[in-house]
Predict the 3D structure of the following.
Amino acid sequence: MKPWITAALFVLFLPAFNPVVAHASVPYTVPATKAPANHDLVPIKPSGHYKRTTCLVSGETLGPDRLAYRYKGKEVQFCCNECVVKFMKNPSQYLSKP
């Protein structure tokens, strides 16, 4: 095989064998929840700028496995899937909390 063909194949297939490069383009995904489908509630990666340290619904301390969503442009975080479901039943009740 000609050297330039070998070099071209190496450059083309190198990302497939490098785990850092191969997974760099994979978007962040949030674990699936049992929450009702709602286009206003979009899963996001938890940000470091979230001011609350407790779940919006239950009041429990948010751990590293917290769930983060954007609801009508505002970030909200929950301690578990059950709280997401409760939030979706009546969002205004929980958003009015300080």
